[in-house]
Amino acid sequence: MPAEAASSQHRSIARRGIMLVVSSPSGAGKTTLTRNLIEQEKHITLSVSVTTRPRRPSEIDGVHYHFISKRRFDIMRDSAELLEWAEVHGNCYGTPREPVEQALAAGRDVLFDIDWQGTRQLYDAMRDDVVSVFVLPPSAAELKARLERRAEDSDEIIVKRLRNAAEEIAHWPEYDYVLVNRDLDKSFLRLRSILTAERLKRVHRADMESFVEGLLDGLREITA
Ligand SMILES: Nc1nc2c(ncn2[C@@H]2O[C@H](COP(=O)(O)OP(=O)(O)O)[C@@H](O)[C@H]2O)c(=O)[nH]1
Ligand SMILES: Nc1ncnc2c1ncn2[C@@H]1O[C@H](COP(=O)(O)OP(=O)(O)O)[C@@H](O)[C@H]1O
């Protein structure tokens, strides 16, 4: 393909949004951080997962998750309606494909609160679009205290989540960024900074080509 044709084809590619993935052991604070980001940042959409886990008292169906039966989950998984899926703490979770593809095609960023297994699947499918952040608790005792303070799960479920925490934490080296969530405000600022920096990366700035062309046209005009 002649260079000119290749460059005009490249110009026609719309900006694709970033897939910002946040993972952590249960209780480290990823839901709090991701909800704050959605509230304060325009142009980012939260991917609402489907899950077979029972709804917690504070959760709203369709907002925090789509709560579905195992039968419905199996149908969605088998008919490729899920972009990725995993079993976590004995329940099934998955990301509906269509809303993500629509948002990305429209140039919107998408935020995912998913585990390491899902992050791997997104990396395998769409490596160039994925930016991943791992959130660690400041200590084991604080992780336990946060799960207890949240007071949404039974003691038995809290113990299960603490037992699974080591397995989730083992995957932190697979992520692009790591946050130790000590102070919530500081962690939030850092998460927001990651998004800002990633948005400014040249590979995510397909819109810059026409801007720079205009700039060069302007320079030619004033130096002619
Ligand atoms: N792979 C995958 N993991 C998910 C999805 N939705 C939630 N998770 C993960 O499942 C785990 C349990 O989530 P949840 O039951 O809401 O408990 P939480 O960890 O206390 O927020 C967390 O690590 C979530 O990030 C999903 O669609 N796909
Ligand atoms: N930096 C922090 N300091 C103190 N408490 C926090 C902090 N971040 C989150 N929390 C609290 O810890 C609990 C667990 O947070 P949550 O966001 O539900 O975690 P996760 O989604 O990772 O399971 C919640 O009660 C939340 O308000």
UniProtKB/TrEMBL annotation:
Alphabetized InterPro entries for the sequence = GK/Ca_channel_bsu (IPR008145), Guanylate_kin-like_dom (IPR008144), Guanylate_kinase (IPR017665), Guanylate_kinase_CS (IPR020590), P-loop_NTPase (IPR027417)
Which PROSITE patterns does the record cross-reference, listed alphabetically?
GUANYLATE_KINASE_1 (PS00856), GUANYLATE_KINASE_2 (PS50052)
Q: Spell out the coiled coil positions from the record.
A: none
Q: Name one GO molecular function term.
A: GMP kinase activity
Q: Is the keyword Nucleotide-binding assigned to this protein?
A: yes
- What residues does the Guanylate kinase-like domain cover? 17-196
Q: What is its main location?
A: cytoplasm
**Where is this protein found?**
Cytoplasm
Query: Where does this protein hold ATP?
Result: S24, P25, S26, G27, A28, G29, K30, T31
Keywords from the named record: ATP-binding, Cytoplasm, Kinase, Nucleotide-binding, Transferase
Q: What does the record give as EC number? A: 2.7.4.8
Q: Name one Pfam family in it.
A: Guanylate_kin
Q: Briefly state the protein's biological role.
A: Essential for recycling GMP and indirectly, cGMP.
User: Belongs to which family?
Assistant: Belongs to the guanylate kinase family.
What is the protein name given in its UniProt record? Answer: Guanylate kinase
Originating gene: gmk
